[in-house]
């Protein structure tokens, strides 16, 4: 177990160094930041002075070492657009994105897993066929179209829910949350549904396919032959084996939701990291773009590590092999 964790940690460090190199390369090949920060009529002396302040006059190896050292400490430099520390801006936006992703993930799991189990246990039922059709539609429709339809129905026609913003928030230490206000919860519903709807259909189809395959396996037949009830077979034996691949996909999709919450945050003007990234791209704010890339990679690496450890908790055979 310890050897496995050490191996994964070494792999994670290698991955993060590769991502840091890609993020650092953005500084080298996506234009000159001095041109974005100074007016066109700036003198050569002003340009050189700013270049020295940013450390762009130093060798590439020194710049990369400084970038990696700063990233390890959570420092990504100063935003070219806002003239503020990037770490400070991310700390302000990160709670909004994490709360959105958490709400979307809970929504997807609470709907997707039960729907998938029902569809697997009743493969020829009318409701199962309806769920399969709905899941196909959910996968096929683009996310931004879903968001626009949600706004049209629930904000414009029914006027039940707000169509943009985060609502009222409460400051708890450095964390600003919308979970503790009615306005914040109402503002969270539509973005969370938009972000989680695709995941609902994906999880449902995955659980259905995996559970139907497990139900056809020999150990399930033996369990039935021993006289166990359908409930004991389906939920005591089949479901546990079904969850192994589901955990992998859900873990990766959780990272994907954080990475690709950009569309949802743009449609609903949700003040999270995705909207910050879009604004950085439009301005060419490379420190913010690089920090976003490193943060997303760190999330994926951490989630993969957690998923691997969950494997050991679910399947004791892995502990014996390790």
Helix content: over 70%
CATH top level assignment of the domain at 91-270: Mainly Alpha
* CATH fold category name of the domain at 91-270: MetI-like fold
The overall pLDDT, averaged over residues, is: 84
- CATH superfamily (homologous) name of the domain at 91-270: MetI-like
Distance between the termini: 6 Å
The main sheet comes to:
2 strands, antiparallel
CATH architectural arrangement of the domain at 91-270: Orthogonal Bundle
Estimate the strand proportion. Answer: under 5%
Spans of at least 5 consecutive residues with low confidence: none
How large is the radius of gyration? 24 Å
| Shape designation | globular
User: What is the N-to-C order of secondary-structure elements (H for helix, E for strand)?
Assistant: HHHHHHHEEHHHHHHH
Q: What is the tally of helical segments?
A: 14
Give the number of DSSP strands: 2
Order of strands side by side in the largest beta sheet? 1-2
């Amino acid at each position: 177990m310890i050897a496995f964790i050490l191996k994964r940690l070494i792999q994670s460090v290698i991955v993060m160094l590769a991502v840091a190199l890609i993020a650092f390369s953005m500084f080298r090949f996506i234009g000159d930041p001095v041109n974005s920060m100074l007016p066109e009529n700036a003198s050569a002396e002003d340009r050189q002075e700013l270049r020295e302040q940013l450390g762009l006059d130093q060798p590439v190896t020194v710049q990369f070492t400084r970038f990696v050292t700063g990233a390890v400490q959570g420092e990504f430099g100063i935003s070219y657009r806002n003239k503020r520390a990037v770490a400070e801006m991310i700390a302000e936006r990160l709670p909004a994105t994490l709360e959105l992703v958490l709400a979307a993930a809970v929504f997807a799991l609470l709907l997707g897993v039960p729907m998938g189990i029902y569809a697997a246990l009743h493969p020829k039922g009318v409701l199962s066929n309806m769920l399969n059709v709905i899941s196909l539609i959910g996968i096929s429709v683009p996310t931004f179209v879903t968001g626009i339809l949600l706004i049209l129905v629930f904000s414009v026609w029914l006027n039940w829910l707000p169509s943009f913003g985060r609502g009222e928030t409460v400051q708890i230490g450095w964390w600003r949350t919308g979970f503790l206000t009615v306005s914040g919860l109402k503002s969270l519903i539509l973005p969370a549904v938009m972000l989680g709807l695709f995941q609902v259909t994906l999880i449902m189809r995955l659980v259905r396919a995996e559970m139907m395959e497990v139900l056809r396996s020999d150990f399930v037949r033996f369990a039935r032959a021993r006289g166990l009830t359908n409930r004991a077979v389906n939920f005591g034996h089949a479901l546990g084996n079904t969850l192994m691949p589901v955990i992998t996909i859900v873990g990766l999709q959780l990272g994907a939701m954080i990475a690709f919450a950009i569309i949802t945050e743009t449609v609903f003007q949700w003040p999270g990291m995705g909207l910050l990234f879009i604004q950085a791209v439009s301005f060419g704010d490379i420190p913010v773009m690089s920090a976003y890339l490193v943060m997303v990679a760190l999330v994926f690496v951490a989630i993969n590590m957690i998923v691997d450890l969950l494997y050991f908790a679910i399947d004791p055979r892995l502990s014996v092999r390790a």
